[in-house]
Amino acid sequence: MKTVVITGVGKGFGRELFLGLSRNYKLIGITRNEDDCESLRKEIEPESTHHEIMCLDITDLGAIESKLLPVLEENKGSVYGLINNAGVRCRKGMLSLSLDEIKNVCEVNLFAPINLAKHMLPYFVSNNSGRIVNISSILSQSSLPELSAYAVSKAGLDGFTRSVTAEFASAGITCNSILPGFCKTSYYPNFLKNSELYEMTLDKTPAGRWGEASELIGVCELLLGQNGAYINGASIPVDGGWLS
Ligand SMILES: NC(=O)c1ccc[n+]([C@@H]2O[C@H](COP(=O)([O-])OP(=O)(O)OC[C@H]3O[C@@H](n4cnc5c(N)ncnc54)[C@H](OP(=O)(O)O)[C@@H]3O)[C@@H](O)[C@H]2O)c1
Hints:
The chain is an alpha/beta fold. The chain has a single domain (3-238), classed as Rossmann fold. Helices cover 44% and strands 18% of the residues. The strands form 2 sheets. The protein has a 7-stranded parallel beta sheet, sandwiched between helices. Strands 7-8 form a two-stranded parallel ribbon. Helix 3 packs parallel to helix 4 (99-127) and helix 4 runs parallel beside helix 5. It is globular. It binds NADP nicotinamide-adenine-dinucleotide phosphate. NADP nicotinamide-adenine-dinucleotide phosphate binds next to helix 1 and strand 2.
Protein backbone atom coordinates (compact mmCIF):
# COMPACT_ATOMS: atom_id res chain seq x y z
CA MET A 1 0.00 0.00 0.00
CA LYS A 2 1.20 3.51 -0.79
CA THR A 3 2.00 5.72 2.21
CA VAL A 4 0.43 9.18 2.44
CA VAL A 5 1.01 11.83 5.13
CA ILE A 6 -1.95 14.07 6.01
CA THR A 7 -1.63 17.04 8.38
CA GLY A 8 -4.34 18.51 10.61
CA VAL A 9 -6.31 15.27 10.95
CA GLY A 10 -7.85 16.18 14.31
CA LYS A 11 -10.85 18.06 12.97
CA GLY A 12 -12.53 19.40 9.84
CA PHE A 13 -11.29 18.48 6.36
CA GLY A 14 -8.24 16.63 7.67
CA ARG A 15 -10.24 14.21 9.79
CA GLU A 16 -12.68 13.54 6.91
CA LEU A 17 -9.77 13.00 4.51
CA PHE A 18 -8.11 10.59 6.93
CA LEU A 19 -11.30 8.54 7.29
CA GLY A 20 -12.14 8.79 3.58
CA LEU A 21 -8.71 7.73 2.27
CA SER A 22 -7.99 5.07 4.89
CA ARG A 23 -9.14 2.13 2.78
CA ASN A 24 -6.80 2.73 -0.14
CA TYR A 25 -3.67 4.16 1.46
CA LYS A 26 -1.46 3.59 4.46
CA LEU A 27 -1.88 6.89 6.27
CA ILE A 28 0.34 8.84 8.62
CA GLY A 29 -1.89 11.46 10.20
CA ILE A 30 -0.47 14.43 12.07
CA THR A 31 -2.29 16.75 14.42
CA ARG A 32 -1.38 18.62 17.61
CA ASN A 33 -4.22 17.91 20.05
CA GLU A 34 -3.81 14.72 22.12
CA ASP A 35 -7.58 14.20 22.60
CA ASP A 36 -8.15 14.46 18.83
CA CYS A 37 -5.37 11.90 18.23
CA GLU A 38 -6.92 9.51 20.72
CA SER A 39 -10.47 9.80 19.37
CA LEU A 40 -9.28 9.34 15.77
CA ARG A 41 -7.27 6.26 16.80
CA LYS A 42 -10.40 4.81 18.40
CA GLU A 43 -12.53 5.59 15.36
CA ILE A 44 -10.12 4.06 12.84
CA GLU A 45 -8.92 1.03 14.83
CA PRO A 46 -11.84 -1.37 14.29
CA GLU A 47 -11.19 -1.19 10.53
CA SER A 48 -7.45 -0.93 10.39
CA THR A 49 -4.30 -1.05 12.47
CA HIS A 50 -1.73 -0.12 9.85
CA HIS A 51 -2.29 3.64 10.02
CA GLU A 52 -0.28 5.88 12.29
CA ILE A 53 -1.45 9.03 14.10
CA MET A 54 1.22 11.38 15.42
CA CYS A 55 0.56 14.07 17.94
CA LEU A 56 2.85 16.95 17.01
CA ASP A 57 2.83 20.55 15.88
CA ILE A 58 3.92 20.83 12.25
CA THR A 59 5.81 24.05 12.99
CA ASP A 60 8.04 22.14 15.42
CA LEU A 61 10.83 21.30 13.00
CA GLY A 62 12.68 19.22 15.63
CA ALA A 63 9.59 17.05 16.28
CA ILE A 64 9.11 16.53 12.53
CA GLU A 65 12.73 15.32 12.32
CA SER A 66 12.65 13.10 15.39
CA LYS A 67 9.16 11.59 14.99
CA LEU A 68 8.15 11.70 11.32
CA LEU A 69 11.45 11.11 9.52
CA PRO A 70 12.15 7.69 11.12
CA VAL A 71 8.66 6.50 10.09
CA LEU A 72 9.21 7.74 6.53
CA GLU A 73 12.54 5.90 6.48
CA GLU A 74 10.84 2.66 7.66
CA ASN A 75 8.35 3.00 4.79
CA LYS A 76 10.76 4.48 2.27
CA GLY A 77 9.79 2.23 -0.64
CA SER A 78 6.13 3.17 -0.39
CA VAL A 79 6.31 6.88 0.54
CA TYR A 80 4.00 8.43 -2.06
CA GLY A 81 1.86 11.34 -0.92
CA LEU A 82 1.58 14.45 1.22
CA ILE A 83 -1.62 16.36 1.91
CA ASN A 84 -0.72 19.68 3.53
CA ASN A 85 -4.05 20.40 5.18
CA ALA A 86 -3.36 21.86 8.66
CA GLY A 87 -3.97 25.57 8.67
CA VAL A 88 -4.93 28.49 10.88
CA ARG A 89 -6.87 31.70 10.31
CA CYS A 90 -6.30 35.15 11.78
CA ARG A 91 -9.18 37.60 11.43
CA LYS A 92 -7.78 41.08 12.04
CA GLY A 93 -7.65 44.39 10.17
CA MET A 94 -4.35 45.15 8.45
CA LEU A 95 -3.49 48.15 10.63
CA SER A 96 -3.83 46.24 13.90
CA LEU A 97 -2.15 43.12 12.60
CA SER A 98 1.43 42.73 13.82
CA LEU A 99 4.25 41.29 11.76
CA ASP A 100 4.55 38.51 14.33
CA GLU A 101 0.90 37.56 13.76
CA ILE A 102 1.49 37.43 9.99
CA LYS A 103 4.61 35.30 10.59
CA ASN A 104 2.67 32.93 12.87
CA VAL A 105 0.03 32.31 10.21
CA CYS A 106 2.74 31.79 7.59
CA GLU A 107 4.64 29.38 9.90
CA VAL A 108 1.66 27.00 9.89
CA ASN A 109 0.09 27.62 6.46
CA LEU A 110 3.22 28.09 4.36
CA PHE A 111 6.61 27.31 5.93
CA ALA A 112 5.60 24.03 7.62
CA PRO A 113 4.08 22.65 4.37
CA ILE A 114 7.26 23.63 2.51
CA ASN A 115 9.38 21.93 5.17
CA LEU A 116 7.32 18.73 4.94
CA ALA A 117 7.50 18.75 1.14
CA LYS A 118 11.28 19.21 1.27
CA HIS A 119 11.56 16.15 3.54
CA MET A 120 9.30 14.01 1.36
CA LEU A 121 10.38 14.98 -2.16
CA PRO A 122 13.63 12.94 -2.04
CA TYR A 123 11.56 9.78 -1.34
CA PHE A 124 9.21 10.64 -4.22
CA VAL A 125 12.20 11.15 -6.52
CA SER A 126 13.76 7.81 -5.62
CA ASN A 127 10.37 6.05 -5.97
CA ASN A 128 9.79 7.76 -9.38
CA SER A 129 6.35 8.96 -8.28
CA GLY A 130 4.74 11.21 -5.72
CA ARG A 131 1.81 13.47 -5.06
CA ILE A 132 1.55 16.67 -3.07
CA VAL A 133 -1.86 18.24 -2.41
CA ASN A 134 -1.81 21.63 -0.72
CA ILE A 135 -5.08 22.71 0.87
CA SER A 136 -5.11 26.40 0.01
CA SER A 137 -8.20 28.64 -0.09
CA ILE A 138 -10.34 30.80 -2.38
CA LEU A 139 -8.58 33.66 -0.57
CA SER A 140 -5.37 32.88 -2.45
CA GLN A 141 -7.15 34.31 -5.49
CA SER A 142 -9.75 36.66 -4.00
CA SER A 143 -9.98 39.05 -1.07
CA LEU A 144 -12.06 39.71 2.01
CA PRO A 145 -11.34 42.32 4.69
CA GLU A 146 -9.47 41.28 7.86
CA LEU A 147 -7.94 38.17 6.31
CA SER A 148 -4.74 39.58 4.81
CA ALA A 149 -2.32 37.34 6.75
CA TYR A 150 -4.29 34.28 5.73
CA ALA A 151 -4.55 35.41 2.10
CA VAL A 152 -0.80 36.06 1.92
CA SER A 153 -0.02 32.61 3.33
CA LYS A 154 -2.35 30.83 0.90
CA ALA A 155 -1.18 32.82 -2.15
CA GLY A 156 2.36 31.82 -1.16
CA LEU A 157 1.29 28.20 -0.91
CA ASP A 158 -0.09 28.30 -4.47
CA GLY A 159 3.22 29.79 -5.63
CA PHE A 160 5.01 26.90 -3.94
CA THR A 161 2.66 24.43 -5.66
CA ARG A 162 3.60 25.78 -9.10
CA SER A 163 7.30 25.83 -8.21
CA VAL A 164 7.28 22.15 -7.19
CA THR A 165 5.60 21.31 -10.49
CA ALA A 166 8.22 23.25 -12.46
CA GLU A 167 11.07 21.41 -10.73
CA PHE A 168 9.66 17.91 -10.23
CA ALA A 169 7.02 17.12 -12.89
CA SER A 170 9.66 15.39 -15.03
CA ALA A 171 10.36 13.05 -12.07
CA GLY A 172 6.76 11.75 -12.11
CA ILE A 173 5.67 14.00 -9.25
CA THR A 174 2.53 16.13 -9.18
CA CYS A 175 1.74 19.04 -6.90
CA ASN A 176 -1.63 20.80 -6.85
CA SER A 177 -3.53 23.23 -4.67
CA ILE A 178 -7.16 22.80 -3.68
CA LEU A 179 -9.03 26.05 -3.00
CA PRO A 180 -12.02 25.39 -0.75
CA GLY A 181 -14.76 27.95 -0.32
CA PHE A 182 -16.74 28.24 2.91
CA CYS A 183 -17.18 24.74 4.36
CA LYS A 184 -18.62 23.30 7.57
CA THR A 185 -15.50 22.55 9.58
CA SER A 186 -14.78 23.55 13.17
CA TYR A 187 -15.24 27.31 12.66
CA TYR A 188 -18.76 26.90 11.25
CA PRO A 189 -20.75 27.02 14.54
CA ASN A 190 -19.05 30.28 15.56
CA PHE A 191 -19.45 31.77 12.10
CA LEU A 192 -23.20 31.07 12.22
CA LYS A 193 -23.48 33.43 15.19
CA ASN A 194 -22.58 36.40 12.96
CA SER A 195 -25.68 36.35 10.75
CA GLU A 196 -24.61 39.32 8.56
CA LEU A 197 -21.28 37.68 7.70
CA TYR A 198 -22.92 34.29 7.19
CA GLU A 199 -25.56 35.74 4.82
CA MET A 200 -22.78 37.46 2.85
CA THR A 201 -21.04 34.11 2.30
CA LEU A 202 -24.29 32.53 1.10
CA ASP A 203 -25.00 35.45 -1.26
CA LYS A 204 -21.51 35.21 -2.79
CA THR A 205 -21.67 31.42 -3.22
CA PRO A 206 -23.60 30.55 -6.41
CA ALA A 207 -24.46 27.12 -4.95
CA GLY A 208 -26.24 28.98 -2.13
CA ARG A 209 -24.85 26.75 0.62
CA TRP A 210 -21.67 26.03 2.57
CA GLY A 211 -19.73 22.92 1.57
CA GLU A 212 -19.52 19.83 3.75
CA ALA A 213 -16.20 18.88 5.40
CA SER A 214 -16.28 15.66 3.38
CA GLU A 215 -16.42 17.45 0.02
CA LEU A 216 -12.64 17.46 -0.52
CA ILE A 217 -12.36 13.68 -0.48
CA GLY A 218 -13.29 13.15 -4.15
CA VAL A 219 -10.82 15.67 -5.55
CA CYS A 220 -8.04 14.31 -3.30
CA GLU A 221 -8.77 10.77 -4.50
CA LEU A 222 -8.47 12.01 -8.08
CA LEU A 223 -5.21 13.90 -7.45
CA LEU A 224 -3.65 10.93 -5.62
CA GLY A 225 -4.78 8.33 -8.15
CA GLN A 226 -3.61 7.33 -11.64
CA ASN A 227 -6.46 9.29 -13.27
CA GLY A 228 -4.96 12.49 -11.87
CA ALA A 229 -1.43 11.91 -13.11
CA TYR A 230 -1.50 14.72 -15.71
CA ILE A 231 -3.02 17.36 -13.41
CA ASN A 232 -0.05 19.38 -12.22
CA GLY A 233 0.57 22.85 -10.81
CA ALA A 234 -3.15 23.57 -10.73
CA SER A 235 -5.20 25.60 -8.25
CA ILE A 236 -8.53 23.80 -8.14
CA PRO A 237 -11.52 25.56 -6.52
CA VAL A 238 -13.98 23.45 -4.50
CA ASP A 239 -16.15 26.41 -3.63
CA GLY A 240 -19.72 26.10 -4.90
CA GLY A 241 -18.78 28.58 -7.63
CA TRP A 242 -17.40 31.42 -5.40
CA LEU A 243 -14.48 32.17 -7.76
CA SER A 244 -16.55 31.91 -10.97
N1 LIG B 1 -13.26 25.27 6.34
C1 LIG B 1 -13.19 26.13 5.36
O1 LIG B 1 -14.18 26.72 5.00
C2 LIG B 1 -11.88 26.36 4.65
C3 LIG B 1 -11.90 27.18 3.52
C4 LIG B 1 -10.72 27.37 2.82
C5 LIG B 1 -9.55 26.75 3.23
N2 LIG B 1 -9.55 25.97 4.35
C6 LIG B 1 -8.30 25.34 4.72
O2 LIG B 1 -8.51 23.97 4.99
C7 LIG B 1 -7.54 23.51 5.92
C8 LIG B 1 -8.24 22.78 7.06
O3 LIG B 1 -9.12 23.70 7.66
P1 LIG B 1 -10.37 23.28 8.54
O4 LIG B 1 -11.41 24.31 8.28
O5 LIG B 1 -10.66 21.84 8.37
O6 LIG B 1 -9.78 23.59 9.98
P2 LIG B 1 -10.09 22.94 11.41
O7 LIG B 1 -11.46 22.38 11.49
O8 LIG B 1 -9.68 23.99 12.38
O9 LIG B 1 -9.05 21.74 11.46
C9 LIG B 1 -7.68 22.00 11.34
C10 LIG B 1 -6.92 20.89 11.98
O10 LIG B 1 -5.51 21.19 11.81
C11 LIG B 1 -4.88 21.14 13.09
N3 LIG B 1 -3.73 22.05 13.12
C12 LIG B 1 -3.75 23.40 13.02
N4 LIG B 1 -2.49 23.88 13.16
C13 LIG B 1 -1.68 22.82 13.36
C14 LIG B 1 -0.29 22.68 13.60
N5 LIG B 1 0.51 23.74 13.67
N6 LIG B 1 0.23 21.43 13.76
C15 LIG B 1 -0.58 20.34 13.72
N7 LIG B 1 -1.91 20.42 13.52
C16 LIG B 1 -2.47 21.64 13.34
C17 LIG B 1 -5.96 21.59 14.05
O11 LIG B 1 -5.62 21.27 15.37
P3 LIG B 1 -6.18 22.17 16.61
O12 LIG B 1 -7.66 21.95 16.63
O13 LIG B 1 -5.48 21.59 17.77
O14 LIG B 1 -5.83 23.58 16.30
C18 LIG B 1 -7.16 20.82 13.50
O15 LIG B 1 -7.13 19.48 13.89
C19 LIG B 1 -6.77 24.73 6.39
O16 LIG B 1 -5.55 24.81 5.70
C20 LIG B 1 -7.69 25.88 6.01
O17 LIG B 1 -6.98 27.07 5.78
C21 LIG B 1 -10.70 25.78 5.08
